[in-house]
Amino acid sequence: MKSYSYTSIPTFFLLSVIVTTSAITRAKNDDSQWLAAEAKALRETGWWSNYKKRVGNHCMWPGIRCNAGNVVDIDLGGHGLNGGITPQIGALSKLKLLNLSSNSLTGELPSSLGNLTQLAVLDLSYNHLHSIPLEIQNMENLVSLNLSGNPIFFMSSEIFNLKKLMTLHLRNCRLSGTIPPNIGELESMVDLDLSNNRFIGPIQSSVSNLTNLASLFLQSNQLDGSIPKDIGRLTNLVALNLSSNCLVGQIPSSVSNLTNLSSFLQSNQLNGSIPEDIGGLTNLVELDLSSNRLSGHIPSSLGQLTNLVELDLSSNRLSGNKDLCGSIQGFRPCPSSPNVKHNLPIAILVSTLLFFVSTSVWVIFILFRRYRAKTLKSDPSSSKNGDIFSIWNFDGKIAFEDIIKSTEDFDIKYCIGTGGYGSVYRAVLPSGKVIALKKLHRLEAEQPAYDTSFRNEIKFLTEIRHKYIIKLHGFCLHNRCMFLIYEYMENGSLFYALSIDDEAVELDWTKRVNIVKGVAHALSYMHHDCNLPIVHRDISSNNILLNSELEAFIADFGTARLLDPDSSNRTVIVGTYGYIAPELAYSLVVTQKCDIYSFGVLTLEILMGKHPGELLSTISSSSTRVQNFMLNEILDPRLSTPRSRKLAGDITFIAVIAFACLRPRPRQ
Question: Nearest to residue 152, comparing CAs of 120, 128, 123?
Answer without folding.
Answer: 128
